[in-house]
Each structure stands twice: as structure tokens, then as C-alpha cells.
Write the C-alpha cells for this entry.
Amino acid sequence: MQSTAKSPDDYIAELPENRFEAITELRQTILDNLPDGYEESMNFGMITYEVPLETYSDTYNGKPLMYAGLASQKNHFAVYLSGIYQDDGRRDAFLEAYRETGKRLDVGQSCVRFKKLEDVPFQVIAEAIASVPVDEFVEVAKAARKR
């Protein structure tokens, strides 16, 4: 379910009522914990949190590096956490903290999926978002491009 919305506010405004509250709360959690240097935008049909091209432009597709994303899909909503999936230690710590909440864990390649608001471990998401400064994220991307 890719959106053609031009702004995060437009994206949220077009959501069905049963997704509006969850996406709004997740967005605020991300914004409250987003390290300096990332920008909120629309890309790939979802709300994204990116490294601006002015900061790092040598990307494989000419688009800003996506640090995190927020999407409403057909059967779930998802938070994409590229920052923690670059680092095995961060990913393992995230998964351990998530499991400790006792909430249902449904993860994909770089996303965590939820069916309802009560499933979201907001503190774990907040900590994951806050965990990677933009400079560190860019350095990992640069190293990956050299391989």
C-alpha cells in the first residue's frame, strides 16, 4: 500500500481511522527520539527519516539514506529500523529488549510489524531510534559502499 502523499501530514490524513492513532503515536515517538541530523520526509510511499543528500549524497540510488520509516500496509503497520539492522549487536539488543516486554514480535528484514496499537513497545522503539547518531550511520554506509 504505497502512498502518493507529498508530506507526512498528508500521509496521516489519508489513513483509515483504525490506523490513524497508531501511526500518529509512532510518528511522535520517532520525532521525540530522532537524533539531530536526520530529516522527516516522504519516500518509498511512506514516512521516512533520512540523512539529507546535503550530508551524504553518494547513495546507490541517488535518494537520501533511510534511517527509519513508518508505513501503514494492507494487513499491518510497520516501523523500518535500518540503523539497528546495520549492526548485529544493536539488532540483538533490540530483539532482547523487545522480547522482555512480552509483546508479540513480528520482524522482517528491516522492519517490525504490528497489527494493533497495544502491540507496540514504544520505549523499545524510542531507544532504537535514539541509538544511532547520523555521523555513525553515514560512516557505516560509506564503508558498505567501499566493499
Notes: Residues 5 and 11 are 5 Å apart (CA to CA). The first strand starts at residue 39 and ends at 43.
